[in-house]
Amino acid sequence: MSTRSLLISVALTLAFGSAALAETPGLGKTISEAETKAWDIAVLPDGTNMPPGSGTPTQGAAVYSQKCAMCHGEKGVNPRPGYSPMVGIKKFDKIDAPKTVTYYEFATTLFDVIRRSMPYQMPRTLTDDEVYALSAYILSLNQIIGENDMMNAETLPKVKMPNAGKFTIPYPDRI
Amino acid sequence: MRKQRGGASPPFEQVAGNGLLDRRALLGRGVLFAGAAATGAGASLASAAAEPLKDDPWSLAMGSVVPPRQEPSRFEKHVVRTLSNPNHELRNSHGRTPHHLINGTITPSALHFSICHSGVPDIDPEKHRLLIHGLVKQPKTFTLADLDRYPKVTRMAFVECAGNSAPMFSNEAFQGTCQALHGLASNSEWTGVLVSTLFDEVGLDPKAKWFLAEGADSLALHRSVPVKKGLDDAMIAIYQNGERLMPGNGYPMRLLLPGYQGNMNVKYVRRLKLLDQPAMSFYEAKTYSQIFPGEKLVKFNFVMQVKSFITHPSVGHSLTGAGYYEISGVAYSGNGRISRVMVSADGGKSWGQAALQGPTYPQAFTRFTMPWRWDGQPVTLMSRAWDESGLGQPLRAEFVANRGQTEKPVTSPLAFPNQHYNSITAWGIDSKGEIKHVYA
Question: pLDDT for B173-187, tens place per residue?
C-alpha cells in the first residue's frame, strides 16, 4: 500500500470506521419486558420465573383424573399408545428404558411442560395452582415427594430429583 | 466384469471385492467406449437388442396446460413421505423422506421430513412475531417483513432428528427401507438472517450464555442453545430451497442450527430469550437426552455425528440381473464437510473409495457414487464416511460396544429405543437381486 492510499484509508477509518462498526439495520420494534409476559412462561431450574400459587398431591389427583388420565393413564401408568408412562421405572439401566418423571434432573421441567403444553388439546388453560398441584401429584406418584408435600415457587425448585447431577455433557467446549 | 489385463481392455479397474470399480471409471470416457466397442471388448457391455422405435401417443398431440405451480408427473405418485400418524391422533406425527426414490443432495421441500409434536400450525405470516429478549440491551420484536430486509445468507444444511436411524438400535436387523430407517434426515438450501445479526440488533448482555428458542405451535416447544452456537452459524431461516418454508418445516420461520440435533432447530420460532443458564425444557431434559449403557445419562448431545447410507440400491429396489449398476448414497456430518466415503460389496472385507459429488458443503448432504459390476452372486453393500475433523462412522460392533442395543428386536419404525445412531448400514442382496437390511 502506498503512503498516499494508506493515509486515505486511515482518514476514511477515522471518519466512518467507528460509526460503521456500531451500525445495525435498526429494524424491528422495541418492546418492554413487561409487554412480553404472556409469552414469557419458561421457568428455569433455579426457580427463576416460577409464578405465585401452590398445590398438593391430593389437589392434583382430582385435576389429573379429569384432565390428564385419558392420555397418560390412571396414576401415570398404562398410557395411550404412543405415550410413555410417567410413573414406574426408577432405574435407567437399559438403553430403551421409558423415561418416567424420575428420569428428569429438575422438577422445574415437569412444572414447565405442564404449564406450557398441557392439556394437549387445550394448552395454557390450567391455572398456576393447578399446575403446582399436578406437579405435586406426579412427583408423589414417583415417590419423589411425600403425599402431603405442598409445591410452590419456593419448594418445587428445591425438590431433590434422584438423577440430579448424574448427566454427563459430551461437548462442554460447545457451551 | 471379468478383470482384463490385455491392452484392449476397458479401463475399469476393480478396486474392491465383488465388483466394485474405480470411482473414475465411466466418467467422460465416451471416446474410450467407442474404441473398446470396436475391438470387441464392448460386447460384454451390450444389453439385449432394443425393439424398433415408433412414436408414442404423447409425441403425436399437444400436451396439457402449463400449470401455475408444477406437480410431479402422475407416474411419480409413489414418491411420497411415509406417515406415522395418518389419522391425526393426539400425539406427534412423522413424515419420512423417501431417500431410495430420489437422488442428488437437495431434498425436495415437499419431501423434507417433518416431525410435529402437535400437528402443523396454520400461521398467518403477517401476524407472526419473533421476540428477542432477556439478557439483552433492548428487547425487540421482528416481523417476517423485517427479517426480509436484513442482510441474509444462503447455505446448504441437513437437518436430522436425533431419533433418525433409531430402529438400528435393534439387536436384530429391522426390516425396512432407507425411508423407514433414515427418513428423518433431509437436506435443503436455507436462506435467512444469521442469529448473530439479530443479536447485534438487540445487544447481548455479556452474562448471556444460553438462549431458549420457542415455537408458536400449541406446545410452545422450546429448547436451549448455547450463545456460542448463536454467534457461530445459527440462522433464522425464512426460505427453503428458494421458496418460503414448508408448513411442516417451520413456516414462516425456524431456527437453523447447522449440524445440531433436529429438535433444537425450533420451528415456528417466535421467541429467543437470552439466559444465564439452560432452561432444561422437556425436550432437552427428557426426550432428546439419552441413556447410554451402564446407566450413563447424557444431556446436551448437540452434534449429529458423521453418517452415510447407500440409497441406491437399497431395500425397496431389486436388481434386475447381473451387470453394471451405480451404487450411490448420502453422507453428512454435523462436524463439517465429508472428506471420504468408502464402499464395500463384500460385507466389509475390502473397501473401495467412492467419488464425492462436489462441491462438498459443511453440515450438508454429499452424494457419493461408486461404479459396480454385479456378478449375480450374493453380496453385502455397505458405506462408511469420514468427515474433515477426522471422525469416521463406527463399525457396528464398535457402536454397539459404546451405545448398546435392545434386548428384544425392534418391530416398528415408531419405536425409538435410543438416539444418535450413526453406525454403518448394510444391504444384503441375494442371487435373485432381492435386498434386505442386514448387520455386517
Answer: 999 999 999 999 999
Please count the CA atoms within 13 angstroms of the CA of B385 that sit on its side-chain side: 31
CA B213, CA B123: separation in Å to the nearest integer?
Answer: 17
Contact status of B401 with chain A (Cβ, < 8 Å): no
Where do we find the cell 447424557? B298
Q: Which ipTM value was assigned to this complex?
A: 0.91
Quick check: A106 contacting B, CB < 8 Å? yes
B116-132 burial, b at 16+ Cβ within 10 Å, e below that, comes to bbbbbbebeeeebbbbb
Angstrom distance (rounded) from CA B333 to CA B327: 20
Alpha-carbon distance of A104 to A144, in angstroms, equals 11
pTM of the model: 0.92
- Is the pLDDT at B39 greater than 50? The verdict is no
Q: Which residues have C-beta within 8 Å of that of residue B153, sequence separation ≥ 6? A: B191, B192, B193, B194, B235
Residue B131 has pLDDT above 80, yes or no: yes
* Cβ-proximal residues to B384 (8 Å cutoff; 6+ apart), any chain: B308, B341, B342, B343, B344, B351, B392, B393, B395, B424
d(CA B138, CA B73): 51
CB-CB under 8 Å, A170 with B90:
no
How many CA atoms does the CB half-sphere of B309 hold within 13 Å? 27
The pLDDT value given to residue B33: 45
What is the tens place of the pLDDT at every residue in A59-85? Answer: 999 999 999 999 999 999 999 988 999
Q: Is A109 on the interface with B (CB under 8 A)?
A: yes
Q: How far is B343 from chain A, CA to nearest CA, in Å?
A: 29
Nearest CA in chain B to A26: B201
